[in-house]
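Field notebook, page 397. I keep forgetting to write these up properly, so this time I am using the form the group agreed on. The chain and the ligand, pyridoxal-5'-phosphate, are recorded exactly as supplied. Prediction of the bound pose follows.
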Amino acid sequence: MPGFELFGSAEQKEVQDVLDSGILMRYGFDAMRNNHWKAKELETELQTQMQVKHAQLVSSGTAAVSVALAIAGVGAGDEVILPTFTFVASFEAVLMLGAIPVLVDIDDTLTLDIDAVKAAITPKTKAIMPVHMCGGIAHLSALKEICKTHNLKLIEDACQAIGATYQGIPVGAHGDAGCLSFDFVKTITCGEGGAVLTNSDDLATWADHYSDHGHDHLGTDRGAESHPFLGYNFRISELHAAVGLAQVRRLNDFITIQKKHFTVLKDALSTIPEVTFRTIPEGGEENYSFLSFFLPDLETTRAAMNALKEAGIDGSFHYYDNNWHYVRRWEHLKGVKTLYPMSQQIQSGLKELEGKTFTQSDHFIGRNISCLIKLSWTEDEVKLRASKMVEAIKSVL
Ligand SMILES: *Cc1c(COP(=O)(O)O)cnc(C)c1O
């Protein structure tokens, strides 16, 4: 997954352009910037690659989710349905807007289970936020249908899945808004950065203004611009955008390398009858950033993790025991451990989480191992890794 592995002369050249002019900000300073508009160029490149009308760069993936929810009108007391398996950023963004994260079970796609989503809808539900975890794809057709029926917004968190497609269109470009992350460990990196994608002109305008203190970006005098509504600062810098610009041009190459490595590992693990693989919804093609598979039960999976560790196989994740990606360890959320008071609405909304069990999610996450696919492996390294993994897993079955 990590684009940082292939950081090189292309990235350095783009950054050097910015350093040469000294204009590190994406807005204004037209005369001094030698016609370098790295953030704008990256937005245009993303629009083309993601087959979407608008892309708004922001300072992080978390910022992208926050902006996407804000422009979708999610606010005080609204409920947002999201999965038990995601990164903490998903609920952080919801809480930032004064809304209530409603966690629901996942299925063998490692994304939202459709029946669980339907059961979680209440009159307060405002949006559904599928997370395309580990390069996979949520049940987008069914989710679009549900959103249409119940008049809900669909916000895709595609932070881990840039390059994956569904029905020929990149994930992140299907919902009312989609979110990308360009943090240091994602498929494409800016160092820190993110983007909001949308096909709606209104949402795009609101994202543009909201992520820059409400600036309407009209005219050439920044100080004289007006502010049609309240905003925040979620701007990306030109330096970060410059890195991302070089990286995103290499996206197809990165995905091709990932697919090659992924296929060697998957073919090897397919020889073990007890191993099954994460489901990708029909019509979808993952981005091959992780190889995700299931073992028969929790104990075997824990034993396999130990065996992989002993065999020196790094980059394997058993999210069941992970602090950041799975509901079991989110005590800070369940206990509403904040530095400042939260609204009564949020506190009573989160009460529901206390002591709640997610048997179906446990069933899948408990048996799941996800292996990060690296870009920098040589062919020999991938083959050696594949045989070591097979040996380690077989040793515990
Ligand atoms: C990385 C990530 C984010 C947040 O992105 P940052 O750029 O690190 O803020 C959000 N959601 C998911 C699923 C992620 O993996």
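OBSERVATIONS:
- The two ends are 29 Å apart (CA to CA).
- The chain has a mean pLDDT of 97.
FOLLOW-UP: compare against the apo run.
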